[in-house]
Amino acid sequence: MERKLAEFRARKKAQTEAEKPAVRVIQSEMKAISDDSPAMSTDTTELKPKTCPQSPHKEGVCLFELQQGVLSISARVMANSPAVLMRLVASAYAVAEKAGTIVRKVLQSGELGIVEKTGADDLQTLADRLVQKSICASLSKSFPKLTIIGEEELPAESVEEDLIENGHSSLILQKSCPDQYASLKEEELVVWVDPLDGTKEYTEGLLDHVTVLIGIAYGGTAIAGVINQPFYNYQIGAGASLGRTLWGVLGLGAFGFQLQEVPDGKRIITTTRSHSNKLVTDTVQAMEPHDVIRVGGAGNKIIQLVEGKASAYVFASPGCKKWDTCAPEAILHAVGGKLTDIHGNAFRYDANVKHMNSAGVLATLRNHQYYISRVPQAVLQALPSD
């Protein structure tokens, strides 16, 4: 494994040098997009001097009244200022939108910059690298005390200004933060980032499988998530408006899609298309499905659940990591669904947990216990819970 990692790092370094011209082209296009965007404006309030009855001067600023005024304004600002969590989600939304644009630009350039990490089914592209740099740098700039954990192992280096997103979703800021999260501090939050979920499918042209995932956890629990689908609508053809962003917060709900359920009594299983094995197939069959859908990307599979295309996501194998499941879990839980390991145990998203979900993944919008009860005993024994 150490030799493979050393070889991967060497290939990645050589790849980085080779792809610099393509990166410059993409950055130039990103800058053009930014230059065309309307500038953000801020409102300012002017403090005017007033006559102070305690002052020997006819007109001046009374120190006491000025202090009281500043305190009053500060109190109003604090009272009206959105909670840290909502500001983070609003920023993550804008960052995810920019990420989707980067993913599309890399594909359009034709220079994917593919590198094998641990094998042919574990790939990294230029889009993975640029998007992770963009997300981590953007969120770190606005929330310097955050803990951010990304999938890709990237060298520490400066991030081009063109990749940084400073905006936010004003619609999200208008929503009230659930009371249990209203006083959270940014240093209490952990962000899990998968810059390109479904990388293999991205390289194969299965673009509807691809998502960008930004999950937010507090106290080990996934409490908010943002999922961008860069190529949503791509199958419509030329002229289609590409991309959409879904988001959700526990206690508030989930947005950006129409919640639907599969027809009553239908058991439609969505599972992996490229990482299957006997444990996976045995577990899927034990569910007695009416239909099985094999697609890429954990984010894509959760979207299938909340849009009524599947009733359960079953993956009875190690492979998924915390950055694959944090954002999807938060959105699924926000609409009443459930995501656990194959035993029915919840995942933890603390900063110091191991990244691998060793006991697989089982997610449902409804009837979670039924699917848990159908998991074969041999599979449970083969996949001990963390």
UniProtKB/TrEMBL annotation:
It comes from the Eukaryota. GO terms for biological process: phosphatidylinositol phosphate biosynthetic process. Pfam families: Inositol_P. GO terms for molecular function: 3'(2'),5'-bisphosphate nucleotidase activity; inositol-1,4-bisphosphate 1-phosphatase activity; metal ion binding. Gene3D superfamilies: 3.40.190.80, Fructose-1,6-Bisphosphatase, subunit A, domain 1 (3.30.540.10). InterPro entries: CysQ/Inositol_MonoPase, Inositol_monoP_metal-BS, Inositol_monophosphatase-like, Inositol_monophosphatase_CS. Keywords: Acetylation, Hydrolase, Lithium, Magnesium, Metal-binding, Phosphoprotein. Its cofactor is Mg(2+). Mg(2+) binds at residues 151, 194, 196-197, 324. It catalyses: adenosine 3',5'-bisphosphate + H2O = AMP + phosphate; adenosine 2',5'-bisphosphate + H2O = AMP + phosphate; 1D-myo-inositol 1,3,4-trisphosphate + H2O = 1D-myo-inositol 3,4-bisphosphate + phosphate; 3'-phosphoadenylyl sulfate + H2O = adenosine 5'-phosphosulfate + phosphate. Its EC number is 3.1.3.57, 3.1.3.7. Residues 1-22 have a biased composition (Basic and acidic residues). Residues 1-53 are annotated as: Disordered. Belongs to the inositol monophosphatase superfamily. This is 3'(2'),5'-bisphosphate nucleotidase 1. The lineage of its organism: Eukaryota, Metazoa, Chordata, Craniata, Vertebrata.
